[in-house]
Write a structure and sequence with these properties.
Number of helices: 2
Shape: elongated
Helix content: 10-25%
Structural class: alpha+beta
Oligomer: single chain
Radius of gyration: 22 Å
Strand order of the largest sheet: 11-12-7-15
Distance between the termini: 67 Å
Number of strands: 15
Order of helices and strands: EEEEEEHEEEEEEHEEE
Largest sheet: 4 strands, antiparallel
Length: 191
Amino acid sequence: MSRIGKTPVVLPKGVEVQVTPGQVHVKGPKGELTQSISKKLEVRVEGERVLVSRPDDERDTKAQHGLARTLINNMIIGVTQGYKISLDIFGVGYRAAMEGKTLVLSLGYSHPIKVDPIPGIEFEVESDNRTKLMRLHVKGADKQLVGQVAADIRKFRPPFAYKAKGTAIKGIHYVGEVRVYKPGKAGKAGK
């Protein structure tokens, strides 16, 4: 048996789980989520726990077992606590601001970039004038959606390792991301 797949998922108070063939619906204080899972797997709710089991030991079924349990666990965490990914924006003239619920990014292009939030996603911007660092938070209940929106925003101006000011590399970075500065070509040695 899969060690992850056989571990039961504990249901917190206020969370409802409904299972239909091939789908799991989770409803909680921060929203509702639906996830498709393999029809070969059996998902059942027993009191305060959700259990995932598989009928056989085929390779495909074994692969889906732990995945389905983890996806259900992520949905339960999402509807109770939510997920948040933070991005740092660093560069001369690089700014982020909110216009209503729309995120407006100034990243050195000839025009500002406007990002409308997808349903279930919220943006929050904070700035530190002392360090000239802008921090953007992407929040939501769906872990995959939060990660995808953060990655799409990072694509507008990924870190550029050849232009650094001190220890800060210009661009949009994940908070906690290890950044490597590349000094460039050193030139020819003396002849």
